[in-house]
Amino acid sequence: MKMVWQRLGYVGGSFLAMLVMLIMLVSPVRADDSQSQTCQQANVALQVLGSGGPEIDDGRASTAYLLWVGGKAKVMIDMGGGSAWRFEQSGANLADLDAVLFTHFHVDHSADFPVFVKAGFFTERTQNLPIYGPDNQGKGDLLVNSTVFVDRLFDKERGVYPYLSGYFDANRQTPFNYIAHDVPVSGDALYTAKPAPGLDISGIPVNHGFLPAMAWRIDVAGKSVTISGDMNGERQTLERLAKGTDLLVAHAAIHEHTQGAGAFLHMKPTTIGRIAKQANAKKVVLSHFMNRSQNRMEAMTAGIRAHYQGALAFATDLSCWVID
Ligand SMILES: [Zn+2]
What we know:
With 324 residues, this protein is an alpha/beta fold. 30% of the residues lie in helices and 25% in strands. The chain has 11 helices and 14 strands. The chain has helices at residues 2-26, 34-41, 83-90, 107-110, 113-120, 146-154, 238-241, 260-265, 269-279, 291-294, 297-305, and strands at 44-50, 64-69, 72-77, 99-101, 129-134, 178-183, 191-196, 199-208, 211-220, 223-227, 247-251, 283-287, 311-314, 320-322. A hairpin with a 2-residue loop joins strand 9 (211-220) and strand 10 (223-227). It holds the Pfam family Lactamase_B_2.
């Protein structure tokens, strides 16, 4: 009998140890990261959720940003792969968002959208959530626009996830709907919208090769942040959008001597520097790194410094940039 109890005691002990280990492994992530705390305590701040591009060996989530205002995440820009997990780590609440902006519908900017749609069911959200993205202007053979993006994913007949179609149909019983907006990108006109009081968003078409793409600017509480998105600088529109901006996030996907498709799609460091200088941006944060650019930080800096002498920094996932 004694042996049995000893054995049980031993088993109980290892069971307890295993339980403690399990709890440690699966305990929910708290937003106790100092960068997330910084963003939550600022009046206005931008948090980089994903600072990478499409590669899966760059140590970064794909592209996504959160604008924090008064301790709440109010605007999300892009939803690349890994951004849902970074969102959770940031401590943000989907119920707080006033708008989602897409720069374009490449995988590294949009793949986690269905994750957020499903997760919305488990939040307290009851307000509709507008999403904005560039119209495809008849170039839909390579990229879609916002309404086609949601339709092909969530249409109840033909969609990939028909069980979530209610979130896109005002006649169905869901706590809220996503409202997709297609923003024209044929001319160079500024697009403006006010998804919530005091929150001004503006977008402008940019050239991501010949693909429909946009740069976005958000003005709130007297501060502004501008996100270049993926672009090559040929259209010369970002300079206008970013005029006097407090923070310009510039996508740094290539180095100065990149050739071919990369150079057709993205800005070289000297182009980023020229645009930052012309816009008189107060601060530039580089993001959307790829291995070819992040392995050449010194040369990247030199290219930008050929034109721009203001504050310059490099994004990492979850890094918080207070706009003061
Ligand atoms: Zn990209």
